[in-house]
Amino acid sequence: MDLGIALPVTGPQANPEELVRVAQTAERAGLGAVWAYERLLRPAEPWMLGLEQVIPLPEESSSVYDPLETLAYLAARTSTIRLGTNVVDALFHPPVVLAKRLATLDRLSGGRLWAGLGQGWMKQEFEGVGVPVKRRGAGFAEHVEAMRACWGPDPVSFSGRFYTIPESGIGPKPVGLTLLGGAAAPVAVERVAALGMGLVTVVFDWDLLGQGVEAYRKAGGQGPLVIQVNGTIGDRPLDERAPLTGSAEQVAEDLARARALGADHVLWQPIGFDADGLVERIAKIITY
Question: Boundaries of each Luciferase-like domain copy (predicted)?
Fold first, then answer.
């Protein structure tokens, strides 16, 4: 198991120089991966699918660097650290287009791409790209299969309910691409397993995380398990804390539970970005 950090793709630190500095600092410190996520827009009245509660997004969500362009830029400035997406909303991109972009990034990085893909959850983003929300589920599964067809031997062709690719030569082909599915709900986790993808999931509670991982394994999932922590590592221990947060010593103890679940990678998505301090504290944990 290794450890990683989300990049500052939004907020005051989101600029080319800072992105390079964070990625290179993480690589020198021995971290396993840096990560970037996708956010297309910040609607005035955001909401989450399946919930009646309105979920406002932070103001900085109005400007988020595109994850694939960001990671391609960093592929040329790093040499060994993996580059991950947590996640790209696959349904917002035609399969043949996204397949080509992911394969290109994988080639440019020398096979270092871990591509986390999700279905999307915000109605306004679906509206913005002209894709119906009802395409979630079966449409996501077909999208992944269409991309895999693009990565197979030429001539490529695909015919499905939602997507069609005429017989064609399509390249480049990836050389080391690892596919992950972003999921938390049991049915979504089982779908990711059925698709033969690794799993990237956010930890809020140890019991819920354990149930999700168990559902993934029972459904046949054998790919990499990536745990995302929406929080950070501080200087002082906390009496009340979420999993994998608190002091470096507390987090190091928590990592034993993550290993027991079969985690291959843990990444921190800090709230209020402190790249230098977080990289330093993760590096400290690596030495334990």
Answer: 10-219
